[in-house]
Design a protein that fits this description.
This protein is mainly alpha-helical. It is built from 14 helices and no strands.
């Protein structure tokens, strides 16, 4: 399992380190422009490609959907408990709060594909259904953090590139449509650039001295994502005596570190991008210790 984690996490850490190394070579305006490009174009392409890349059986929506939505909702609720210890400005809090339920899709594919008991097809369905709700939660919180009226916030949510891309991807997956190669190829090229650029930008934003300091707010948010959510899934599975194929997928899904897209979304709304970057880095690095535990648990339950 350690080689699996190195395969998934080491490139992430190296790209974040590269961002720190080249921070001074670009102006603040240039970094902001990269974040905007990621927000408007690159990450929507990645989200769409992830959701649309595999057919989604309509029947699976009724089983997988409520389960992954329950995990996201639990993350939202537990993350809210950190509100008294977070930034005073709600917009900044919302930028960090979203990391309590968002998930690293790409790392999930690596982990699930390596587990004998986990079904990669079920994971693809799970993320296809989880991405829209995760973005609805995040965009709604950030929109309200901007102080928008309810109607304006609703419009901002409805027109958000992340949400539109995820809904379009799920629609393509459910319809079972295979996009023509000339259409899909440029989308995949854009998607391939999203994560590296986001990680480099995170490294440029991150203040490395702060990474080692887990204050009460960041500890609660990171513990929610890496410990509380997979623990809740495990306890429910044990209580029900379930060995269904979806169980190891859900445990891994719940245990994933947060998404690098959280930094992009926070920057897009004007929230404190340094806080989001720190939480992403802490979550990713600490997951190297927690993911082997949950992978072992997932395999044990599946037997």
């Amino acid at each position: 399992m350690i080689p699996i984690l190195l395969t998934g996490l080491l490139p992430v850490v190296l790209l974040v380190a590269l961002g720190g190394a080249v921070r001074e070579r670009l102006s603040e305006t240039a970094w902001a422009g990269l974040d905007r490009l990621n927000f408007e174009v690159l990450f929507p392409a990645l989200i769409f490609a992830a959701a649309a890349s595999r057919p989604i059986a309509p029947a699976s929506l009724l089983v997988v959907g409520p389960l992954v939505w329950a995990i996201l909702t639990l993350g939202l609720g537990l993350g809210w408990l950190a509100r008294p210890f977070g930034p005073a400005r709600f917009l900044d809090f919302a930028g960090g709060w979203q990391t309590a339920w968002r998930f690293n899709t790409a790392l999930g594919f690596v982990i699930v594909d390596a587990l004998p008991s986990a079904d990669l097809g079920l994971y693809a369905v799970a993320i296809g259904l989880a991405i829209p709700l995760a973005n609805i939660f995040a965009v709604t919180a950030l929109s309200r953090g901007e102080g928008l009226a309810a109607a304006s916030a609703l419009k901002r949510v409805a027109l958000n590139p992340f949400l539109l891309a995820s809904l379009a991807g799920v629609a393509v997956g459910v319809a079972g449509v295979t996009l023509p190669r000339p259409v899909l190829a440029p989308i995949e090229m854009l998607a391939g650039a999203a994560i590296p650029i986001a990680l480099i930008s995170i490294g440029a934003t991150l203040r490395w001295g702060a990474l080692a300091r887990l204050d009460r707010f960041s500890a609660m948010i990171v513990a929610t994502k890496l410990v509380a959510l997979p623990l809740a899934v495990t306890l429910v599975a044990l209580a029900l005596g379930s060995r269904a194929p979806i169980v190891p997928v859900l445990i891994v899904f719940a245990a994933l570190p947060t998404a690098s897209a959280a930094h992009v979304l926070a920057a897009g709304f004007g929230a404190d991008r340094r806080l989001a970057a720190r939480l992403i880095a802490q979550s990713t690095i600490l997951s190297a210790a927690t993911l082997p535990v949950w992978m072992t648990v997932a395999e044990a339950i599946a037997r």
